[in-house]
Amino acid sequence: MSDLTCRELVELVTDYLDGALPADEHARFDRHLDMCEGCREHLDQMQTTIRVLHEAGRAPEPGEVEGLDKVLDVFRDWKREQP
Amino acid sequence: MDDLATIAALRAGDEAVFAELVRRYQPMMLRVARMYVKTPGAAEEVVQETWLGVLRGLDRFEGRSSVKTWIFRILVNQAKTRGVRDQRVTPFASLEGDDGGAAVDPSRFEPGGWWAAHPGAWTQLPAERLESKETIAAVRDAIAELPARQQEVIVLRDLVGLDGAEVSENLGITEGNQRVLLHRARAKVRAALEGELT
Fold this sequence. Notes:
The structure holds two protein chains of two kinds.
Chain A: H1 6-9, H2 13-17, H3 23-35, H4 37-57, H5 68-81
Chain B: H1 3-11, H2 15-33, H3 40-56, H4 67-85, H5 127-130, H6 133-144, H7 148-160, H8 164-171, H9 175-197
């Protein structure tokens, strides 16, 4: 199997991180990374992007939940309907 | 408390366990609902309907997916139904997600496919910089500009934290398709961050 180019590698990063590449493709990806600093940097950028996305998704501190009272009313109404 | 214990406690009417679930997931649920409906009020209604759906569905929960995945599946369905009614989303959206764009601007490569100039590592950037309000805001703006399908996938995968199988199941798409959408979405967010961080 021929070697990957950098332009091909950047299209496979999500498959690679998900472990969704076939074994030989995965090995080809690793071989390219070993010899290519630019692609190691790109992979680092993608992993950092994912980290920041996780950060953006982090919920506010407990106790800051809006509408908890209304949802608890939903719960109490539901509980009353139970046999 | 594991998922089956949580479900058993809810079936038994344990309000403390329910309140804990609400505290844990409600902020994220509101954020997801806002992708489908027009107003914060509508999003709040969708989330309330979701909790009712969760309670009414307790007897049908079989533990084949996690409680989190199950809650977000109900949420996405509720939000889509409401979004269609409010004409915010079109049902059966076409596969607009695969817009065929390259993950990295082709001009960054030499004709042979190698980097023309190294992209540069971000590992040295301080955590405070990555977690700053400005950086988070840039990410949220980038997500808001994505096509709807890409937006759904990246929010459920990278913000909510579901795995690929869970997201494809929730959205009714194949895992491969889910990954294509996720890759396009992450690539665009990366490009936006590059503008912000470097």
